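Quick check before the chapter quiz. The format below is the same one you will see on the exam, so make sure you can read both the input and the output lines.
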Amino acid sequence: MRGGGSARAAGGPPPNRREFAVQVAVGGLAALGWACSEQRLIDPGDQGLAFEDRQWTIGFSNASETNTWRTALREAIEEEVAKYANVRLLITDANDSPAKQVSDMEDLLTKGVDGMIIGAANLYVANPILDECAREGIPVVIVDRKVASEQYATFVSTDHTFGAVRGLSRLVDLIGGRGKIAIIEGLPGAGPAVERNAGYDTVLERHPQVVAVRQAGDWSRASGQRVMENVITANPDLDGIHFDNGEMAVGGIQALRAAGITDEMMRENRPCLTWLDGYNGGLKLIKAGLGKYTILHPPRLHGSLSVESMIRIFRGESVPKRQPIELDEITRDNVDQFVAMDQPDDFWTR
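Here is the expected output.
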């Protein structure tokens, strides 16, 4: 029941997380292998503790808020948790530091969270914490960024490799299957960047007549501008450019303008521009005809689905091991369904 009351069960306060894990284990539910495709992780109802009868704490370990996608993710998680009067939220920001994120997650465990949502700084940073959570019966939702361990309840994300293949394939088609392009990649080592780079590799292997210059940014507008300045100075003959996100695309277009490439030239595909995600500033540029294609990667949907999944687990319901989010492809023909022209560039509609 959303917005349920915060009354505790009669007979004393609810168990803390370790006591609760023991109770669940007695009921035969805590020792489940989390590699199964779908499972009931905990069942408070079997212990006479319905979801509404106790207080719950969710910890959210955010890799960073160095780009607006992750800020929108955090906002969506906050908004979804606020629907439940008996659920509180603890948030940490690792600022893209794996060492800090380990400390953040350990701190959340020390504070007695009942469940944890993790957006990991890299593939391996969460492994020790996931092992600890598995031992203690604490469910974990992984959001957006893939981790190397399978010790989690569910993974909420778009298919980054598929999105990268679609995005770069569209650019290759637009330039006629041959020519010189640049790929401005995402943050090195982060799960989405690793998966997307694998997708870019696949496309380039299929098109040997396409030569690619590849440099990494960090998904921020500033990095898109900085990297694009370097790339266009060394490669003024580019036929196309693909950005790993819309925020870097906005910064990159600023660099292209400073290099003497006009908006009219970009509208005429000199060079042709594509990117990933639904950053509102990027959608405005697609509406203006400067960008030709993007594919949605919605932070707000990631956030709300992550919390909804955790609430289902708290209720003793089953959750699938993986929850892929549908990818909408956006061009000038359908951009009006997604763009918010009256909102700032860093607004995310979905």
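If your answer matched, good. The mean pLDDT is 88.
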